[in-house]
Amino acid sequence: MDPVRVVLVDDEWLVRAGLATMLSGADDLVVVGEAGDGANVAELVRSTRADVVLMDLRMPGTDGVTATARLRDLPVSVLVLTTFDTDDLVRQALRAGADGFLLKDTPPADLVAAIRRAAAGEPALSPAIVRKLMARMTDGDESRLARARSALSALTEGERRVAEAVGQGLSNAEIAAAQFMSVATVKAYVSRILVKFEVANRVQIALLVRDAE
């Protein structure tokens, strides 16, 4: 199999160097590009054919949220990097299309595992973090509540069960085991849910499910 191609985006070169060093120990990952801000990340992703972007949020010039939004139409997964798990920028980035987030002090083995999951289309958020984020992202917006409930009502019973499981932060394999389905069937359900919800990734499915509660 080809290695997972990773782009590092952080305004501190020491951070990028540290990340590159950590990832160099994984035979199935390769750093193909780096950037000090988000201005030209989309072009960098296209030229390197990156699979995953590790995106810092607080950068001078073009910040990570703006850069993440510019990547929504590209076939790349975005993992945002932050110092705080309650940072409002994290919530903005997730709504902009990020596939998950990691704390900057994430152990190397967990960082590598998260990148692999993101490249495979799996969630890069633990169930505990999903629940914490979902709780903090509820703001009582009635229009968003109505949209979320309308979207859920359009799902079949099977799709709704899978959507709710995604909202709990479960992987495809975990959903398959819990729902007595094959992983391929779960993937098919997730693909249909993405289309019906008109969202870009699993995290946004989770946000919409949480909005409907």
Descriptors for this entry?
11 helices; single chain; Rossmann fold; five-stranded parallel beta sheet; 2 domains; alpha/beta; DNA binding; 13% strand; Arc Repressor Mutant, subunit A
Structural summary, described in words:
This protein is of the alpha/beta class and 213 residues long. The protein has 2 domains: 4-124, Rossmann fold; 140-211, Orthogonal Bundle (Arc Repressor Mutant, subunit A), CATH 1.10.10. The protein is built from 11 helices and 5 strands, in the order βαβαβαβαβααααααα. Strands 2-1-3-4-5 form a 5-stranded parallel sheet, with helices on both faces. The model has no long low-confidence stretch (mean pLDDT 84).
The CATH architecture category of the largest domain equals 3-Layer(aba) Sandwich
CATH topology of the largest domain: Rossmann fold
Q: Alpha-carbon distance between the termini?
A: 41 Å
Helicity level, as a percent range?
Answer: 40-55%
What is the number of strand segments? 5
CATH class of the largest domain: Alpha Beta
Question: Strand pairing plus helix content: what structural class?
Answer: alpha/beta
Q: Can you write the helix and strand succession as a string?
A: EHEHEHEHEHHHHHHH
What is the number of domains? 2
For CATH, the homologous superfamily of the largest domain is named as Response regulator
Q: Characterize the biggest β-sheet.
A: 5 strands, parallel
Strand content: 5-15%
Number of helices: 11
Calculate Rg over CA atoms. Answer: 17 Å
Organism: Amycolatopsis saalfeldensis
Protein name: DNA-binding response regulator, NarL/FixJ family, contains REC and HTH domains
Domain Response regulatory: 5-119
Domain HTH luxR-type: 148-213
